[in-house]
Every structure is written in structure tokens, then in C-alpha cells.
Amino acid sequence: MATPSKPSEDMVFYDIAMRPPIASTCCAVNPWKSRLALNFKNIAYSTTWVPLPDIAQVRSDLGVDACRNFGDGTKFYTLPILVDRNTNTKIGDSFDIAVYLQTEYPNSGSGNLFPPQKLDFVYNLDDALLVPLSERKGDEHDEYSRFNTNVDAAFTAHLSLMAYNLPFEPATAEASRAEFIRRAGVKSWDDFEVKGEKREKIKESFHLMLGDLSKLFLKDTTGPFILGEQASYADLIVGGWLRMMRVTLPEDEWEEARGWHGGIFGRLHDSLEKYAEVK
């Protein structure tokens, strides 16, 4: 039987609801990785927006267990989830969604999400994180999986620049902030605000980290992507974080970061715009 180039029935994609207008404020990193992958593969889907406090119940109702745990062993319930009604498949992890799309619909869209390449970026992170990182081991996509984990670690280490400005959906903002406060073990939401000299030091670290990451994009200067003119899931992984930065950094800092290292990440963000439609 021939492999279908595209699914016959629209998929359902679950993302975290932010404040209106939601197409401009959605900024959850892992859902963005999946949205970029869905659009890259030209997959028809509709988005179901889930308030942050309802995520655990939605995953339970769909029968999709948490795929990560906090350090104390409790489950970390987050999104995205993708439901493919064509195959009766439900996937609850952004990396697994990308692998599924490429495996099930290899001939759809803009090509291969996982072309062979060396992704030699490593970030050593010793500090405890507010959210656990996703890790996979032992399959044909190890190179991309390691890159995903290292990129997530590198950006998460600088999440304090962004967390305070998360645009929570108004009806559930108080509950959402309370959950972040609980996870971080702080006293109030104001504890997430980073200002003055401390912020400048974190920005300096962020600038240095992005400088290391930018070296990958300098290996082939024929285009904005790591492989030059050919986009891959590695570019979408970074692109998901750029989408969060655009929404949650103060506007002047976003413009500043866009221009760092010769404007590499500003060009990447803009070049991924064709895959960034919010449906």
C-alpha cells in the first residue's frame, strides 16, 4: 500500500490558551515546535485552546499520560497533544509529534524534517529547572533529540528574562500564576521579575549562549537555516523558542536580541514565518 502524502481528515492540535488575540500571544515553546512542524508538513489541523489549569484534566480525558516528571517524581502535565483521527493516534510530546509526522506522512509538505546533519551544540546545565526537560534515547533521531535537549536547557536557563511577562488568559491568570509560584517555591509572582544589574548579567549570559548556538548557522551561509536553504526540525526547535522570546521579552530587548551575532536569529525567526500560521 502506498504511503499517503497527506491525511484525509483534519488533525486536532492542543495548545495552551493565552490572552486574546491568541494568534499573537500564543508563546508556549513546545506547542510552537509542533505547530511549525505541522505547517512544514502541510498538514490540515484545527487548534483546541486549553487554559493552563485545565491541561491535566484534558490529558486525562484524552488518555494521554504525562511524558515527563518533576524532580520529586510528580507528573508534569503540559501540551502539545496531537490527535490524528486518520490513524486513531494520540501523541503528547512535541518531539514525538515531529517523528510521527515524518514517519506517517513522509512525502507531505516541504520535505524531510530530519535530514542527516551534525548538530554539535552542547549546553552544560547544573542548576535545577522550573520545568523538566524532555529526553529521548536510542533511536534514529538521536542527533536531533540531543540537540532538542541541549537547546531547551540553554534557553530554560535564561527563562527568568521571559517568565514575568507571560500573557496569561485573564480568566485563569490567577490560577496559572499560582501554579508557577508553587513550582518555583517562591512567595509571589513579583519574585519572577528580574531587573537592574541582575537582568543585565543574565542578558550577557544569554548573549554568550546564543553566540555558541549561532556557530551552527554559520557552517552554511547560503540561507538562514543550519543547512542553508533547507529547513529541518532543528531550525524549528530554535524557532519555537524565538516565538516565545518575541512575545515575552520587552519589545526593546526582543529587537536587541534579533540583531545579536549578525542578526542570525532575527533572520531565522522571519524565515520561519511561512510555517507560523496559527490555525
TrEMBL record:
Q: What is the species of this protein?
A: Lobosporangium transversale
Q: What is this protein called?
A: Uncharacterized protein
Residue limits of the Glutathione S-transferase UstS-like C-terminal domain?
Answer: 187-275
CDD domains in the record, alphabetically?
GST_C_family (cd00299)
**Superkingdom:** Eukaryota
Q: Which lineage do the record's taxonomy fields give for this organism?
A: Eukaryota, Fungi, Fungi incertae sedis, Mucoromycota, Mortierellomycotina
Domain GST N-terminal: start-end pairs = 32-103
What InterPro entries does the record tag this protein with? Glutathione-S-Trfase_C_sf, Glutathione_S-Trfase_N, GST_UstS-like_C, Thioredoxin-like_sf
Q: Which Pfam families match?
A: GST_C_7, GST_N_2
